[in-house]
UniProtKB/TrEMBL annotation:
<keyword id="KW-0175">Coiled coil</keyword>
<protein>
    <submittedName>
        <fullName>DUF814 domain-containing protein</fullName>
    </submittedName>
</protein>
<feature type="coiled-coil region">
    <location>
        <begin position="253"/>
        <end position="280"/>
    </location>
</feature>
Length: 420
């Protein structure tokens, strides 16, 4: 996952600050990744400060906290409990001159506390100041103005950032494995997007701003001066000439009128799209529908197992074959590995919205064990730990000839082998 960009951070702060205004800090949860600050107003909000060095993040959750408290105490957490708990949120600002740095001010009638959050990759830090004392998550480094960035990437929405972050934590496994829930979630997002567009289009149709531009153009043309009535002053550019303002006025009027006419056509189409989407229901993909054969695509050697759901399990004959299969697998395919048994791993190739049950994972795990391990390595009734993770979270170790990988956001299953 990519860290917050400057634009995304500024959008987050402008969206979140009004929600937390006046809220009381009532709970602090600290763990190895960072902190979660529980604010209470009319609603319970959790401000999560993820201080991972390469991908720092700040997120807001309503009613629930995705962070768990660490059994080990953290100095910054203890300091906040002592100095900031029960204070009220007063402001949140981005210090743009230094890049991705946010200050949060908390206070009551007697005391105040400031949090300086540095969300700069490899310079991540949280510095807390109160009553002349200061504590930091890491040793503070000197700041310098951020470099200019040409052609920055388009900003993600807050919803996209939250979804990506939760996926990294493994908190959305259910929806990623449950095609119905995934489809319903996407349907809700699409409906919200279309309804918002419908509202904007209706505003365009109801707007009569084009008439104001026509009025201005006609006034300038007939009167021959830039001194206009009060209600037209905001539309005049006094730095430009009379002829420029006349041309600009009629041009703006024509543009707005054209948009108004186009909006009427789009309105009818959008109403139909919303109606169709509201009536839409999930349709399960038929089992056995077409999947690309990874063996043929990669020219790798190995074996494959067809599961009842239509998914296909691939196990390479060598480390090179397994790496070739992994590199051609889809992001949503699963990488499966028997923990503590080197080489015992495979790819479960599936459709994007296809559910893979624990029963099928067990079948695949037993098959992989049988295909890739010596018969003496395992026996009936033996318990094994199986790691399963989407291929998007698996990375081959560069230059490693043994085919080893790194991975995260996995889930583990403990299985009892039924066949040796």
């Amino acid at each position: 996952m990519k860290a917050l960009t400057q634009q995304e951070l500024e959008h987050f702060v402008s969206s979140v600050a009004p929600l937390l205004d006046g809220a009381q800090l009532q709970e602090i949860i600290a763990n190895d990744r960072g902190l979660a600050l529980g604010f209470q107003s009319r609603t319970r909000y959790w401000l999560v400060l993820d201080l991972v060095p390469n991908t720092p993040m700040m997120l807001l959750f309503e009613d629930h906290c995705p962070f768990k408290k660490s059994p080990k105490t953290k100095p910054v957490g203890l300091f906040l409990n002592s100095k900031a708990k029960n204070l009220y949120f007063t402001s949140m600002e981005v210090l743009g001159q230094w890049g991705r740095i946010v200050t949060i001010a908390l206070k009551n009638a007697e005391t105040e506390c400031e949090l300086e959050l540095r969300l700069i990759p490899k310079q991540v830090n949280l510095i807390v100041k109160s009553q002349g004392k200061q504590i930091a998550w890491e040793k503070p480094l000197d700041l310098s103005p951020p470099p200019a960035i040409e052609n920055p990437p388009p900003p993600r929405t807050l919803e996209q950032i939250e979804t990506e972050w939760l996926a990294e934590q493994g908190s959305v496994k259910k929806s990623s494995l449950d095609p119905v829930a995934q489809w319903e979630k996407q349907k809700s997002k699409d409906l919200e997007k279309k309804r918002k567009a419908l509202s904007e289009i209706q505003k365009q149709i109801e707007s009569d701003k084009y008439e104001t531009w026509y009025e201005l153009g006609n006034f300038l043309k007939s009167e021959g001066r830039l001194q206009v009535p009060e209600h037209l002053k905001e539309f005049v550019n006094s730095k430009e000439s009379l002829s420029w303002n006349i041309e600009n006025s009629f041009s703006k009027a024509k543009q707005l009128l054209a948009k108004k006419e186009g909006a009427k056509d789009r309105l009818d189409d959008l109403i139909k799209e919303i109606s169709q989407l509201e009536k839409a229901t999930y349709k399960e993909r038929p089992a056995g529908s077409q999947l690309v054969d990874l063996m043929k695509k990669t020219e790798a050697r190995g074996r494959k197992l067809h599961l009842e759901s239509g998914a296909v399990v691939y196990c390479g004959k060598s480390a090179a074959d397994n790496l070739a299969l992994l590199r051609q697998a889809k992001a949503w395919d699963f990488w499966l590995h028997l923990r503590d048994f080197p080489g015992a791993h495979a790819i479960i190739h599936r459709h994007r919205d296809q559910l893979i049950s624990d029963k099928e994972v067990q079948e695949a795990a037993e098959w992989v064990a049988k295909e890739s391990l010596a018969s003496k390595s395992l026996m009936v009734g033996q318990k094994v730990a199986v790691v399963i993770v989407e291929c998007r979270f698996v990375r081959p170790i560069k230059g490693d000839k043994l085919g080893r990988v790194t991975y995260h956001s996995e889930r583990s299953l403990s299985l009892t082998l039924r066949h040796a």
